[in-house]
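Human
Can I borrow your eye for a moment on a structure tokenisation matter? Give me a protein, with the fold worked out from its sequence. Write it directly below this note and I will take it from there.

Assistant
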Amino acid sequence: MTKRFLVIWFCYLKTDWFTRRSSDLKNKPFVLSVPDHGRKIITEANLLAEQQDIFPTMVVADARAIVPTLHVIDDRPELSNQLLQKIAEWCIRYSPVVSVDLPDCIIIDTTGCTHLWNGEEKYLDSIITRLNAFGYSVRATIADTIGAAWAVAHFGKDPSILQHGQQATSLCPMPPEALRLEKETVERLHKLGLTNIGNLIHMPRSVLRRRFGSQFILRLDQALGYEEEIISAVQLTEAYEERLNSLEPIVTRIGIEIALQRLLDSLCNRLQEKQKGLRVAIFKCYRIDNKIEKIEIGTNRSSHNTKHLFKLFELKLDTIEPAFGIELFTLEAQKIEDATSVQENLWQRTFGLNNMNLSELLDRFNGKFGTNCIHRYLPNEHHWPERSIKQASSLAEIPTASWNIDRPRPLQLLPNPEPINVTAPIPDYPPMLFRFRGKLHKVVKADGPERIEQEWWLQQGQHRDYYYVEDEEGHRYWLFRLGHYSDRSYQWFLHGFFA
């Protein structure tokens, strides 16, 4: 498939933006300026100002001598990049590959996209019409190469659509500036009488390279299609992503469900063919008012089960507000893993954690109550109790250590031990009384101590002597003394609660 590119040139990007913010500027000549060595230099001028021979690089005082009523606004150098980034994100509804070309252009890879608008003419017309409705003056061209589209958009008499292979014919009458060359190179070309690209195309490349450098040859070859030009998209396209354009804006939940179902069917078929499954997926809805609605789901195990994934999205569909309508739907599988089937035994139907029904049940719990409602923990090879467990990333994660079950451990372990006041008799005896959060507890049963040392390769410090105690109300606690009793610098802490 032949590559096709669209270049959109915003003729008055920043001045159009200021006009959008203040309608009073619509019928006034105005300029943007920056201070420079005690004077103000014009950086941008709107159309009305240009019609009165006011252009960038002029001194504001000279411009006001021509137009006394000229309105001057302080320029914002970072504004161009910010505006182009936002507009480029909006253009993703027309193609997944959109790039910013500073200071005033956007490049769109239209390959394989225009048929959704019944051809390049309607595709181009749709984009220009909507940008004009937003208040931006634009010139746009579709061509086989970015260089040719950029040249025609800036210097062509009638920017539109170049047919396949017509870039050389279109470039010939244009000035060297159309090749996106440095200012010094353009000045040298004009001094030599090379005032259009047609004078350069048939000259020996060795002569052109020697006189004007390799960058000149690169730009010429890129415009003619001899050298590929790579663009950097504002949003990287996921390897597994599906898009669905709607002929008419969708405003109903049923329409959204149908779009989601079609995207899931297509995406899951691709995943199944590759023996893959998704762990994280995002469903995005691009509204005609430039807002993006999106919902995200996650699974405990890689899955390409369309029915299950649809149920997870269905729990969150009520959060999507279509407003005046949704014109584009996308489904991105952001995290992909291998999906392997579990082998069944002939007479046995239990799989433990490998049971797919269990994974799907947990997925529905997470979708309804939040991703932090259920956790799985695995043993970790550390002595310190709060380090001896770790949260598993999935149900399929295999433990690297075994659980230590030779000593009692509390059902609830505090992430940070809390200090308590303790009354204890002679050394190594369990406490008789302890006060925790203002309440006094009398110990009636106790067992210990169990000494746990620090891991010297991680940090230095005192050891802990743990006691398993029960108060007069039948509640059981895990307490420890930090340090030796004889040092008089010891402290007592509560670290956990037993069932």
